[in-house]
Structure formats: C-alpha cells, structure tokens
Amino acid sequence: MTTRTIEFREALREAMSEEMREDLRVFLIGEEVAQYNGAYKVSRGMLDEFGPKRVIDTPISESGFAGMSIGAAMMGLRPIVEFMSWSFSLVAADPILNNAPKMLYMSGGQFGCPIVFRGNDGAGGQLGSTHSWCVESMFANVPGLKMAIPFTPYDAKGLLKTAIRDDDPVFFLESERLLSIEGEVPEESYTVPFGQALIRRPGTDCTIVSFGRPLYFCLEAAKTLAQEGIECEVIDGRTIKPLDIDTIVASVRKTNYCVVVDQSWSFASVGSEIASQVHQHCFDDLDNHVMRVHNDDVPAPYAYNLEQEMLPNARKICEAVRAVTYNA
Amino acid sequence: MSIEITMPRLSDTMETGTIIKWEIAEGDVVSAGDVIADVETDKATMELQVFDDGTVARILVPEGQTTDVGTIIAILAEDDEDSTKVGTESGGASSAPESQTKATSSDTTSAPPASELEAPVPTREAPAPRSNGKMKVSPVARHLADEHSVDLRHVEGTGPGGRIIKRDILKAIDAGAETQAAVPPSSITPIEPVSVATPVKSRTAAMPLVPASMGSMLQEQIIPVSNIRQIIAKRLIESKTTVPHYQVTCAFDMDPLLEMRQQLNEQLVAQQVKLSVNDFLVKCCAVAMYEHPFFNASWEGEQIRIHGEINIGIAISLPPEKGGGLVVGVIRHADQKSLRAISSETRYLAEKARGKGLSLEEMSGSTFTISNLGMFGVEHFTAIINPPNSAILAVGAAIQKPVVKQGELVVGREMSATLSSDHRVIDGAMAAQYLASLRQYIENPASLLV
Amino acid sequence: MTTSSKPDITPQSASLKAKGPSTDLLKQWLRDMLLIREFEVRTMQAYQNKKIGGFCHVYIGQEAVAVGCTAALEPNDPVVTAYRDHGHALARGMDPKYGMAEMFGRIGGCAKGKGGSMHFFDKEHHMYGGHGIVGAQTPLGAGLAFATKYEDEIINGGVSNRVTLSFLGDGALNQGSFHEAQNLAGVLDLPVIFVCENNGYSMGTAISRGTTMGHDITSKAAGYGFDSAVIEGMDVIEVYEGMKAVVDKCRETSRPAFVDMRTYRFKGHSMSDPRKYRTKEEEQQYAQDDPIDKLANELMNNRGLSRDEYDVMAKEVKKQIREATKWAEASPIPDIEELYRDVYVEKFGPYSGTSLPAMLED
C-alpha cells in the first residue's frame, strides 16, 4: 500500500471532496467555507471544484443554517455543516440537539437525519472561555446522535468519510491544534469504522483511555512513565458514540488500572461515563478506582500558563497514573 | 472492652446447642440484631441474633459442634479495640472456651491455643489493614488472593489507608513460593494434618498446598463449549459425514517459487511487505480455477453451482487465549488481486481474526479453501472440506529433500499438498488435472506476475 | 387577498364571491373542514376521557387555513408546521385514524405513538411535522425548500419547481430561529413561504403585548425583502385564492414570501387553558365568523347545496371520525421493543433499525 503524508486539514478536505464526488446529495455549508476557503483552510479549493451551490457560505447564523440543513437532511440530502468552532454551536443547540437526533424517533422512523456537524472543539491557543468549549460531554448525553473525535490525519479522513456515509446525525469534533499535524494516509480510498478503538501504545501496567488531542498528552506521559518503569497502554477511543468499551475492558482486565483523560470538564462527563462503565465491567479486575484527568473545573482562562495548567496535560496524567498504580 | 457471645438458651428445656452454621467470619462487622448463626436446640433450629455492635474477633466453636448453654462461642471487639488482639490475652476470655468446648476429632477449625495465635503477630511490620474493623482490599487483590489461597489477614496492605492491593498479594505469593521452594521435597509429606488444618498461622500455609513443581500435573477440567467451537463441530461433522471426500496428494518442486519469493521480498522490504508461500498458493489456486471451474463450485442437491467469482478461503487458527478454534478468512476475487494485495489482506484477516474477530462478511462467501500447516513443519496432512466448497487444499512445509534434477541427485525443496474433493462434483481425474495445473503455476511462478 | 396591511384583526362579514372555485371543489373543502372540526371535537372528548396524554392543541376555528393553503399546493410540495398540527396533517390527506392512534399512544399512530399530538408526520403526504418548539420548524422549512431546489437543480439537473409552506404561529414571530430562517431564505433565494397563522395570541399573550409592530407583521418580512400578503384566514376561498397567487409566484421566482394569515383560535391554547386573557364578547364575535358556517352558507345560498346534502355530509364525517377513533382504540399499544427502535437508522447499541409506521406499510 503506497502512502502519502498530508496534513490533518487536508485529510478532512479529502474526505469531504471524495464523498462529494461520489454522492451528489452531499454538500458543505457553513461560515466562510466557500470564498474565504474556510476559516481554518479546511475547505480550501472546494468552491472551485464544486461551485457555490454545493459549497455554501452562510451568514453568521448557526441556529438558522443548522436548522436549515436538518430540514434538507429530512428530505434526504446529506449536509456537512461546518461550525467554525463547536463553541458557536451553542446558539444552535435547539436544532442540533432537539431536531437532528430525534427526528427519526419522533416521526416513527419516517424522517431520518443523515447530517454531519463538524468543526473545532476544545481549547485552541489562548482563546478564552467562550471559544474554548469542549462539547463532547454535554452533547454525548443526547440519544440519537453519534460522535467521533479523530486523532490522526488517517483517522480524520477515514472517520469523516464514515460519518458522511452514516444515515444518522454525526457530531464530528476536530481540534484546531491538530489541523497542521501531518500523517500518512493510503493512496487508496478507505474508511475507518465507528466503534473501533485503537491501541496507540501497548503496555502492561496501566490503561489510559482518551480521545482526540489529549492523546498527545497521554503519549507524552506514557513516554515519561516508561522511563520510570510504568508501561502504559494508551487507547484511542476514536468514537465516543458508539463507544468501544470492549477494547477498554480487555485492556483494563490486563493492567488492573485505568486512567481516563478527557478534555471536557469532569462533572457528568465522557470521562465519568467511561469510568463508570469500567467499574461496571472490570470491578473484580481493578486494583484501584479509575482515575480521571480533565480540564480543571474552571472556565478556560486566557493567560498562557493558566490555560496550560487547566488542560489535562502530561504532568497531570503522569500524576494520575502514578497515583492509580500506587507509585505516587 | 470485648463482648462475649455465649450459647443462649433458646428453649425452656435447652441445655446444649449445636452451631449448625456460622453466618459470620472473623473480621466481620456486626450490628445488634444481625443473625450470626443457626443453632440447633433440642426442639428446633433457631437463628442466633447478636445484641451488640462490634467486630467479630474470634469464633471459638466450629460449625457442627455442640456446647453447653452459657459457653462462650464467639467474641466481639468493640469499635475502639483491635479485633486481632481481642481474645489473645492470657487469662482472658480465651481460656473459657478451651475448658468448656467439647472438642471432637474432626475439629480442624477450632480456635488454636493463644500461644499459637500470638506467634505471627509480632513478625508483622504493621497490623493487617482495618478500617472501622473492615479490611480494605482492592477487588483484583481479593480475586488474586482467592485464586492463590492467600489469607488476606496476613497480608500487609500498602495502599491508601492500609488497603491490600495487587502488589501486596503478588509479594505474598512470591514469598510463599520462595518459602515453598526452600522446603526440601521430602519434608512435604510429613506435614502434620493439624498444621495443614490451621493454615492461617504460618506464612507457608497461606500458600497453595500443591507444590509449584506439581502444578504441571494434568487435572480434569470441564471446559464449556464456546459458540465458535460448536459451529466448528456442527459444520465439520456435517461435512465429514455427508460429503464423499477423497484425497489426492502431489509434491511440488518449490525451488523456483522460493527463489522468486526471496527476490520479491528483497525488493519489497522497504515497503514492509513480506510475501509468504501461502500468498503464492492463494494466487495459484485462484488462477487455476479458470481451467477447472468445478473446483470453484458447490453441490446443491439438484444442481451444481459454478461460482462467478473466485474467493479463496484461508483457514486461520485462533490462539488458545481466544478459546482456540479456527475460522476461515476470505480473500475475495483472489484471481484478480496482486500477490501484494493478497499478502496484505491475508495479514489483515489473520490479525483481525486473532484480535477483534472477523466480521461475518469477512468469513463468508469462500468458493475454495486452503489450509496450511507448513509453518509447523508438517509434511503432509488431509483437510475436511469447508462446505459449500467442493474442495480444500491441505498444504505442508517446503522441505529439503534429495531430488533428481536434470539427471542429477541434488538437494531440492519439495512441498506436498493434498487436495480433498467432493466426489459428487469432482472426479479423481479432475483432481489430478487441477493439481497438474497448480504445478504449472507453482513451478513456473513468473506466470503469476503477468 | 389584499396586499395592504390591516390595522387589526376584525371578523369579516360573511360575503363570499360567487365566482372562483367550482362547486365540487368547494364541497370537498367543506367536507375537509368538517372532518378537521369533528376530529378536533373528538380529540377534546378523548383528552377529557384521559385517552390522550400530554399537551394537546386543537385547530378549531382555523380549519380554513390548512384546507385553503393545501388546496393551493401541488401534492409533492413539502409542508411543515408547529405543534397545532392536526389540521395540516388531515388537510394534507392523512387518514384521521392514524392521527387519533398517534394521540392514543398506539402502534398504529402516524409516528407509532412516539410523537403524540404535537408531532404528526406523514412522509407519503409530504407532511414534515409537527414540531414542538416554537419557531424551530421555520429553519427546517427553509431547509426543505433548500433541498427541493438542490434536488431539482443539482441532482436532477432541472429547475426548481417545488414550493415549501412553513407554517408558524404569531408567537414564533419573536423567535431568533424564525429571523435566521427568513434571512437565509432571502440570501439563498429559497422557494419557501412562511405562513404566519396569526390568531392574535401566543398562548395567553395578545400580539400587541408581545410583538412590536404587531398590527402590521408584514413589516418584518419587508425587512428581509420578501413579498408579503395579508389574507383573511376565516374564509377558505380567500385563503385559497390569496395563497394560490403567492404560491404561484414563489414557484416561478424561487423567492421566499411571507403571509399574515388572519385567523382565530376558537378554543384555548391547549386543553388546560381557561382563556382568561380574552373576553367572552370577543370570542362570541369570532364565533359569528366560523369558516365552516361561512362556506356552508355560500354553498346553500349560491351553489345549490341542500340542507339534506349538508346533513348527509356531516353525518358521513361523524361516522368516519367515529370509526377512526374505534380503529385507534383497537390499535395495540407499542411493543416495548419499539422503545429502542428508530433511535438510529442502523443498529447501534441496544437500538435496532427502523420499521415504518403501519400507514406507510400498506
């Protein structure tokens, strides 16, 4: 298999472009996606290829264009809705939470909603509280939606293609901080299925579960910890809904310790959900309770040092792993 | 102050009582009103309730034993006491049961004398972990302790608040194993039964009684049949009993193929591709179908179906920790795929089969199957047809042998393969012809590349 | 139809044009309105008998709007509305038995008992719901129009020829989503008509108390550059003729439009509404303006409908609704498995895929 090295943002673009070539029902809509080439240059060049009727600039009107795209999806189109940032999706909470994930159910199976909402999630670089939302924990609480968080360009492309082909609404959470990282993708077309976690680093002493950008912190921590003789198994969950709990459970049964790293806030979070499920499935295999590393329970600050401290950074992960394995 | 529990008078005529069952164990926390034992009186079996709160420090009368009413049968430690020490003071309550208990010959769990109890206590660096009288043990530590018969009361907890954690149990197991190993084998037999029956008091006794060296002895086990094994059983019985199998074996000169494989692999090393002999065989078997479509067919009772696509199944054995067994991964359109594609797909299927498991789609739709035991050094074997296929090829190892080439005796590499065929679809001569075609490809492998 | 603004909602005198739609068509509309009325009466009865749970909003008084608007549409034009949706579904052609079964929480319901009164959907008749959040259906309406246009132009390579009706109440005028929907419809040239069923009250708040420029709501559409119309919603012929012109123009130009549809809700906002916010006199005045009576009078006075004929029609409608109610009562409650169906199209977790409602299976 020959491979190429591309940026994360190119991977996202390739996924969208390939699917748009394959399926006329697919279109891209959002703020600055067309003429401006995307606020983060994810959609660069797509207007030229697909024209203004399939790569559609919208006014700053998230509730409106999210709702409109849901209406289009009810009729069978397959919109890709770009939120410049998931932070801005909050003004579209009603359509994306009350309409998209429930349409199929409310209509007794008559009208589905094959739509992808995608954009940057999580802290960027010193964006302050309003622009640093991590929506996964809030939104994963809603039945009827799926949620993917890619970590590498390979997954960004493969998971996004799966998302676009999926018949259900998919919340696709990218990270501004990852858009420029590079990685290998195959020449051939491929997809990455939902609900299949990946072991990013094998280990025997402690399981670390995470999604998206914090996996970098996890891998960094795992490296440090390896020097101390603690071999961590780092699991990339890839999709929060569906969650591949089996892979996590198999790992914890082996290591007897688990740390969950989640870039959202701790209370009623993805992290607490995974911890709960691990306790449920691995109760007799645990040598300590599951520990969690989250954003600190404060609004995201602006100052660089404060923001770094707030994040679930490598230092905190190391501390958690040492504590959970009784090596503190 | 400790609380003595005595055999109660549970009926107007009761003089003695028998403990039928203890509902408590030493170390348990009890509250007033809890049922702690079933006691058989002269009239009935009654529940014995406790009137105080506390931690069970000692159980002095074993199940099955009869004692007089008023005899101390157990001792509770109150909150402020160390339950491990209660009942160990000389002259205290401990003397009472000694004198009042009617020991029986089978009394293996009765309380040992105080002196015996005392012995291990000072050797502990810290008291066994207790919190509010309850031992703190992590779930996996408890599990491990059970598995290795480690007595938790004698393990020092190093976790927070004295919690016994996995590492503590592993240490105890290690220590036990060392002690065990230090005991000469001859000294194992003379262990007094009484010592064995009071295992709680010595470190060695906390270990499994079977010496490590005897661990390899076969033991009778009952293994529930997994779904996959049931399916294997059902399908193979069906195949072996309903399909008229016969076998034809042929040997192939593997030198040309192995040479070419080596060359290709050298070129492909940079791309991390390594073609296996099996990859070549998949391709050979697939392309040979063009001339022999009946090998790519199914018996359907009233008709024979010749398939329109060539999908080669590969038998993949599953590791024992996955429960063993085997599955067939399918390389679709193997005739149209490059060796490299076959190779990477095979590797993917094998890894997935041994990991997460194959999807139904990845296991279904084969039209012919190859089973290869060459990697185990097997020279020759026969395989059972994988229905609804009409044939299966069982492949052995390429083995160095003296062979005659161009009139000279030289060392060559030869591989033997046995074709099992369904006689309803394929006659003997056809099998021979298929193998001849296979030989053409195997011995002239360059043809596979065009 | 008038294109000028009206100062306030006032009942119209019962004057109907002699020309216009054929007598047969008018009889059909009369029957349609009677059907909605009877359906709603039996709905209220069933609600009081505890056969219907939750919130329930009846359409009595506004029948001419749904029937007249539907008459101005092609059968494949999408329609979407808010929670007072029974009339639209029935006008669109849904069999009343599926609606009644839905409210009874039965498997035979139009959404298999999962939507209830506020969420009537009917794919076959291009009825896209029934939506419970005030104003939330308006961006969906824009999206339906977007999709018809996209399908026609991008997928089928033609020109846009379908029109979407997105109904809203006057209470939705002040929701942000409605304004965002209007702006998008304007900027993207969407063939959607926002029909504001202006019954004068958002729940218990009179329009003058809650809506600036409430006396002339078309001024809001003017801000978005839309064509707009004020239509007398208590007269089905006016509704039809007014809407026909708006729909035809929208179809031709693919430009959005706005309609101030003047109507009146005879009953309360919901079943638990004591209607203390309006006077008995006002209600009695509007009762004189009943759209059903108005059309019946027109047919009897000018189109030769006999009293007997009318009675037969009314009787038939009663019978149909009685049978629909009976059918709904006989429809089984949903299997518990249904709880886990339709959450996702594809099997995921404990959820299984879709199974269509009975009304689409036939």
Instruction: Summarize model confidence as the mean pLDDT of chain B.
Output: 78
- Provide the helix percentage of chain A: 25-40%
CATH class of the largest domain in chain B: Alpha Beta
Largest sheet of chain A: 7 strands, mixed
CATH topology of the largest domain in chain B: Chloramphenicol Acetyltransferase
Radius of gyration of chain B: 36 Å
Give the termini separation of chain B: 93 Å
**C-alpha Rg of chain A, in Å?**
20 Å
What is the overall number of helices of chain B? 11
- Extended strand count of chain B: 16
Give me the number of helical elements of chain A: 12
Q: Could you explain how this protein is built, in words?
A:
Chain A has 12 helices and 14 strands. By secondary structure, chain A is an alpha/beta fold. Chain A has a 7-stranded mixed β-sheet, with helices on both faces. In chain A, α1 packs parallel to α7, α8 packs across α12 and α9 packs across α10. The longest helix of chain A is centred in the first third of the chain and has 15 residues. Chain A is globular. The termini of chain A are far apart. With 450 residues, chain B is of the alpha+beta class. Chain B has 11 helices and 16 strands. In chain B, a hairpin with a 4-residue loop joins β4 and β5. Helices cover 43% and strands 10% of the residues of chain C. With 362 residues, chain C is an alpha/beta fold. The N terminus of chain C is likely disordered. In chain C, β5 and β6 form a beta hairpin. Chain C has a single domain, classed as 3-Layer(aba) Sandwich (Rossmann fold), CATH 3.40.50. The chains are: A alpha/beta (328), B alpha+beta (450), C alpha/beta (362). Chains A and C meet through α3, α4 and α5 of A and β2, α5 and α6 of C.
